[in-house]
Write a structure and sequence with these properties.
mainly alpha; 4 strands; two-stranded antiparallel sheet; Growth Hormone, Chain: A; two-stranded antiparallel ribbon; single chain
């Protein structure tokens, strides 16, 4: 996210005190609109779930090609995450949101009308770029316009929008599949139901693009662009008149004393990369290496493999996404009360237990002549319960908390570059887990065992390296971090 004199997410664009905000409702409204990018992020990521078998059947591809087609959006997401901040510093946060909406729209039509697998891959990558852009710009913009006292909750809106997008895609997929009599059956205008699953994404993409015109540009970007009267108007709407000129002066001072941000900022004067950058990258990688997206990308295939029908699998997938939404609401309620680190530790413990349970069950499953595991009797029910409890553990912890931490944990001078690196690392890890899973269908015990091990390691990582940010002023926290030569355990 390098490339201008306005690092994304600088707290100098925030009010001096919570009382400076004349209307918390204004901050909630604009944060909600910004978070709609997360809804498209979730929809685009999960819509493939209902089309996996149909794509494989229609285009006659093997498991390796299927895994690449499913994961191709994640390659675009990594690229989008790396470039979003630089573009946002050049043309503004709102303009980048509009670009993301267009990318989602193009992906919806391109994938829906694809006639060969490589067209699917190409337009999934286009949509993935939109996902990557949205994954960076939404938390950055929200951080620039949020009151400190509810910073965690507003930052969590990104994850809430993501899981709502996942839920919406599952419901739409199920309805279209039900209406057509199957995902690979013709629905309307000679197009199969699975194609309409992608085309349906056009509607939220248009809504996101239109609503982007209704929220103000970031005051931090406006000051950096020397648009002081406009910045004063936006700040007045967010903060009221109290301390308005002081806030503008603080933004100006920060701009005057900071160098242009770049990836070089990640290196300490004494050599090496700042420890906090490695912590952010570690959080991003562990969030994906616990295998959460296997549940959302391949759940229909997974549950059909253990004996559920296509319709039953679709229903269970919708139920799982509802659980994900509800547990994210729990995290939003708790994150500013009990803190970030306790939620992560609780989540790691829950994920480890449930994933290891699934590993044991699938390792002892009976393998049929078709190579698919069979879980008769109680074992199938236990696996289903364990999978949903895993979603509970993730949804109340690692899902939302990692996004909140990435938005607030980096010092001003390196926030732009560090957030881009962390987000790109997250998408690269997501891609690796997603593309390797089809080849592990016949070894699910091993797959879930690996995810369970990563859950255990994620807890140890948080306990040792992650610093609690609840109740810590951004200035104090960032000043301390910059003087660290390596990440230290927090108490």
């Amino acid at each position: 996210m390098a490339g201008s004199n306005a690092p994304v997410g600088d707290e100098s664009s925030l009010p001096i005190a919570d009382d400076d905000f004349s209307s918390g409702g204004t901050a909630v409204r604009i944060a909600s609109v910004a978070a709609l990018g997360g809804l498209l992020f979730g929809y685009d990521s999960a819509v493939i779930n209902g089309a996996v078998d149909s794509i494989q059947e229609d285009f006659g591809i093997g498991n390796a090609e299927l895994g690449f087609a499913v994961a191709s959006a994640l390659l675009g997401a990594a690229a989008g995450a790396m470039t979003a901040g630089r573009i946002a510093d050049m043309i503004g946060r709102i303009s980048v949101m509009k670009i993301a909406a267009v990318l989602f729209l193009v992906s919806a039509f391109g994938t829906g009308f694809a006639h060969e697998v490589w067209s699917v891959v190409l337009f999934r990558i286009v949509g993935g770029i939109g996902v990557g852009v949205a994954s960076v710009i939404a938390p950055a913009y929200i951080a620039e316009t949020s009151p400190p006292r509810i910073r965690g909750r507003l930052g969590s809106l990104q994850q809430l929008a993501i899981v709502l997008g996942i839920f919406a895609s599952f419901v739409v997929n199920w309805l279209l599949q039900w209406a057509a009599g199957g995902p690979n059956e013709v629905l309307w205008f000679g197009l199969d139901a699975w194609r309409w699953m992608f085309l349906a994404m056009a509607l939220p993409a248009i809504v996101y693009g239109v609503l982007a015109f209704t929220i103000p540009e970031s005051p931090r970007y406006l000051v950096a662009s020397h648009k002081i009267p406009e910045a004063r108007r936006v700040l007045s709407m967010l903060l009221g008149e109290k301390n308005l000129e002081i806030t503008i002066d603080r933004i100006k001072e920060t701009l005057e004393r900071e160098d242009k941000p770049s990836l070089r900022d990640l290196k300490k004067p004494t050599g090496g990369i700042y420890g906090i950058v490695w912590v952010g990258l570690g959080l991003s990688i562990f969030q994906q290496f616990v295998g959460i997206n296997v549940i959302f990308y391949y759940s229909n295939v997974l549950w059909q493999a253990v004996g559920f029908s296509a319709d039953e699998s679709a229903v269970y997938t919708v139920i799982t996404s509802v659980i994900n939404v509800l547990t994210t609401l729990i995290a939003i309620a708790l994150i500013d009360k009990i803190g970030r680190k306790p939620l992560l530790l609780i989540g790691s413990s829950g994920m480890a237990v449930t994933l290891i349970t699934m590993s044991v069950i699938f390792a002892n499953a009976t393998v049929g002549p078709d190579g698919n595991p069979s879980l008769p009797g109680a074992s199938g029910v236990i696996a289903l319960i364990a999978a949903n409890l895993f979603v509970v553990a993730f949804g109340m912890s690692w899902g939302p908390v990692v996004w909140v931490l990435l938005g607030e944990m980096f010092p001003n001078r390196i926030r732009a570059a560090a957030l881009g690196i962390a987000a790109a690392g997250q998408w690269a890890a997501n891609w690796l887990i997603t593309v390797t899973f089809p080849g592990l269908r016949e070894h699910l015990g091993l797959a879930y065992g690996f995810y369970g091990l990563c859950a255990v390691l994620s807890g140890l990582f948080v306990w040792r390296w992650v610093m609690e940010t609840k109740g810590v002023s951004l200035e104090d926290m960032h000043g301390e971090i910059l003087h660290q030569h390596s990440p230290k355990a927090s108490t």
